[in-house]
Each structure stands twice: as structure tokens, then as C-alpha cells.
TrEMBL record:
<dbReference type="GO" id="GO:0005829">
    <property type="term" value="C:cytosol"/>
</dbReference>
<dbReference type="Pfam" id="PF00132">
    <property type="entry name" value="Hexapep"/>
</dbReference>
<dbReference type="InterPro" id="IPR051159">
    <property type="entry name" value="Hexapeptide_acetyltransf"/>
</dbReference>
<dbReference type="GO" id="GO:0008374">
    <property type="term" value="F:O-acyltransferase activity"/>
</dbReference>
<dbReference type="InterPro" id="IPR001451">
    <property type="entry name" value="Hexapep"/>
</dbReference>
<dbReference type="InterPro" id="IPR018357">
    <property type="entry name" value="Hexapep_transf_CS"/>
</dbReference>
<dbReference type="InterPro" id="IPR011004">
    <property type="entry name" value="Trimer_LpxA-like_sf"/>
</dbReference>
<keyword id="KW-0677">Repeat</keyword>
<keyword id="KW-0808">Transferase</keyword>
<protein>
    <submittedName>
        <fullName>Sugar acetyltransferase</fullName>
    </submittedName>
</protein>
<comment type="similarity">
    <text>Belongs to the transferase hexapeptide repeat family.</text>
</comment>
């Protein structure tokens, strides 16, 4: 026999669920960090329209962290300068992030020495960038007790860093570079390259003389024609949704 449904309990559950979701949305809005509402943080600089989403990851050494304008820092992103909190790291920035940078959810940027990220870089979720690595020179001493090695990291403007990539100390990544998901990058990566693997290697590169080598397998995206307004693009999106819904309905009726 089917169990009778408790309408009152179901109604209370829906109301409670909506209240929880609305409350969490309020917490996320209120807890986010901006230049106008930095909370307890004292960043070296934080640009216009930059937002750190709540909940934040670990953040310390913020006086030596400089964030450009129009950046988006996702939830649970760790940003640290120095080996530990409350150190005096001198007069210069340690972690510098340019304008228009997007750091995906759960990413880590660990700047024990200089880390520089150029403007308009996009990072997928769970990217790990560090300027410090463990040393293991002494075979008789636990690795965790040996003094780490530090090397600066630089990432040029316009790069795309895929999900789960790891950028190791000493990496110098050029301009408009694609780092494939899960790649482990060290050393120098030239401009306009695609790197993949662990350790990462160049799998495709663009030069003025030869273009992309090996050639791209997909056609270049068609640019939006001049004169198209945002309202027209929104109308096209709605039309696509209606067409998809109609096709799904026809498939269900077939």
C-alpha cells in the first residue's frame, strides 16, 4: 500500500528549504570581499569591481598581495604571501595579479617568493600555483624537515590554465598560453603555445611565419557581426532555448 503523503510536513519542508537557500545566498553576498567591503583583510591593493567569493580559502600575507581590477576569485580559493602569517616581507609585492583575472573555485596560489599573474588570465577550478617546493638533498633527514627551495613564478597575460593544472616553482609561462587540464608545468613556456602532460611539453605552437603547428583541427569561431546589440543576442538565446524545447517535445512524441 502506498504511504499517505503528509501535505503539511511537505509544505514546511519547502518553506524551510527556501529559507535556507535564501539565507545562504545572503551570506555569500555579505561575506564576499571587495575594495569597498574588504572586511578584516588589508590587501596591498584591490582594484575596482574585483570580488573574492565567499566562502574564502586560506588568505594571509595580504599586505603583500596586489589584486587588479575586474578580477573574479572563486569560492575556497587560497591566496598566501610568505611562508606563514605575520611575517615582514619587505616593501615589494609578493603576489601580483593583473586586471581581469579569473581564479576558479578551489584554486591555490602559494607565493612564498614572487608570483606574478598577467592580465586577462583564466584559471579553471583546482589549479595549484606555488613558488616553493620541498628539497630532499639529505637522504637521512625527513623531507618535511629540510629547508624548501623557492623560485619566482610568472604567468604572462591572456593565458588559459585548465582544471587541476600544477604550476611549479621557477615556471615562466609566456603570453596567450594554453595549459591543458592536469598538466604539471615547470621551466620556460614560449608565447602562443599549448602545453600538456606531466611534465608538460609543448604540443602546439603559433608563430607568425607558420601559424599554428600542428594545424588546428577545428574551424575558427565566427565573430559576432558589427552592430549586433546585447538585446538581439539575448533574443537569439531565447529562440535557441525554445527550439531545443520543441525538439525535445517532438522526440518524446515520436
Amino acid at each position: 500500500m502506498p504511504k499517505s503523503k503528509n501535505t503539511f510536513s511537505s509544505w514546511r519542508h519547502r518553506v524551510a528549504q527556501r529559507a535556507v537557500h535564501a539565507g545562504w545566498a545572503w551570506v555569500q553576498r555579505t561575506g564576499s570581499v571587495t575594495a569597498e567591503r574588504p572586511g578584516r583583510f588589508h590587501f596591498g591593493s584591490i582594484g575596482e569591481a574585483t570580488r573574492l567569493a565567499f566562502p574564502l580559502g586560506t588568505v594571509f600575507g595580504e599586505p603583500w598581495i596586489h589584486l587588479g581590477s575586474h578580477c573574479i576569485v572563486g569560492e575556497q580559493v587560497t591566496l598566501t604571501a610568505g611562508l606563514m602569517p605575520d611575517l615582514d616581507l619587505g616593501p615589494d609585492p609578493i603576489l601580483s595579479i593583473g586586471d581581469g583575472v579569473v581564479l576558479g573555485r578551489g584554486s591555490h596560489v602559494i607565493a612564498d617568493t614572487t608570483v606574478t599573474i598577467g592580465s586577462d588570465c583564466y584559471f579553471g577550478p583546482y589549479v595549484y600555483i606555488t613558488s616553493t617546493n620541498h628539497s630532499y638533498d639529505d637522504p637521512h633527514e625527513p623531507i618535511g624537515k629540510q629547508w624548501p627551495r623557492m623560485e619566482p613564478v610568472s604567468i604572462g597575460p591572456g593565458c588559459w590554465i585548465g582544471t587541476g593544472a600544477v604550476i611549479l616553482p621557477g615556471a615562466r609561462i609566456g603570453r596567450n598560453v594554453v595549459v591543458a587540464a592536469g598538466a604539471v608545468v615547470r621551466g620556460v613556456v614560449p608565447d602562443h603555445a599549448v602545453v600538456a602532460g606531466a611534465p608538460a611539453r609543448v604540443v602546439r605552437r603559433w608563430t607568425p611565419a607558420e601559424g599554428w603547428q600542428p594545424p588546428l583541427r577545428t574551424p575558427a569561431p565566427v565573430p559576432i557581426p558589427d552592430g549586433v546589440t546585447p538585446e538581439q543576442l539575448a533574443a537569439l538565446a531565447e529562440l535557441d532555448e525554445e527550439s531545443a524545447a520543441r525538439l525535445a517535445q517532438l522526440d518524446a512524441e515520436a
